[in-house]
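S.,

As promised, the magnesium ion run. Input:
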Amino acid sequence: MTNTVIKTTKTSLMAVIAYAIGALVLFTVPVSDPNPATAAAEARVELDRNSIVRALLWMRTSGEYEALCRQTFNVALEQVRNEMKAKKQRKPAAVIMDLDETVLDNSGYSFFLLRNRLKHHETHWHNWNREHPEQVSLVPGARQFIKAVENEGVRIVFVSNRSNALRDTTRKILLRLDLATEAELADPTAMKLLLRQDTSNKQSRRDTIAARYDVIALLGDNLNDFADAFRSPAVNSIEDRRAAVRSHAEKWGAHWFVLPNPIYGYWTRYIDWQKTEQYFERPNR
Ligand SMILES: [Mg+2]
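Predicted complex:
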């Protein structure tokens, strides 16, 4: 499995494009299976795979993705500077950042799953990280944002749902990408990297940070990165999630900053993938 993984970003991009073309050809070829139910199911699988390829291509190639990420970081940095100028903090200031698809670009993993016709599984995720940490790259503008925030005297804290089993691999990735120092990562009291322990709920980790720091901004690609208000049982449907976002309308771009991720996330959990036509009606916004 590992020898099929691409070795460089350039070749991986070429391979993604080749795969996309192949997937589109596959999807347009008439299905020969005589069983309509099987054919429909196969068509659905191909459609979903095409959707992921398209989303992956958008992240890997589009200037719009890069612009959106940089826009988010620019606005967040301006807010951080404003907060520091106002000097309202009673404790040292901190910014909380998620890692995956907020700071770290793991699109290589999605490509790995596609090429090997695999579904996401924690085992694949761990193996890919351990065997190909060099394929983890940066979300555009992330490092510049982190350096600029640190220049303001603000602590960056990474709160990630990577499991503790990936701690060493993640530590090496952060060092290679110049996102943290050995000293910060070696010191358990430095609160630099808070990984998932017994729960994916990040609230207790946010509380721990808030006890020591004034948290002046949070950045993430998943609503779960911002507040408990976006989790079950308060939130149990697509409409619940969107309503919860609206009920915190003043926070977006002021205290909370979202990075785009069309590949995966909690948003996919509430979709009925067998009946996606139901979502094609004009949204009520
Ligand atoms: Mg993330």
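The chain has one domain: 69-280. The beta strands are 93-97, 104-105, 137-138, 155-163, 193-196, 214-220, 256-258.

- D.
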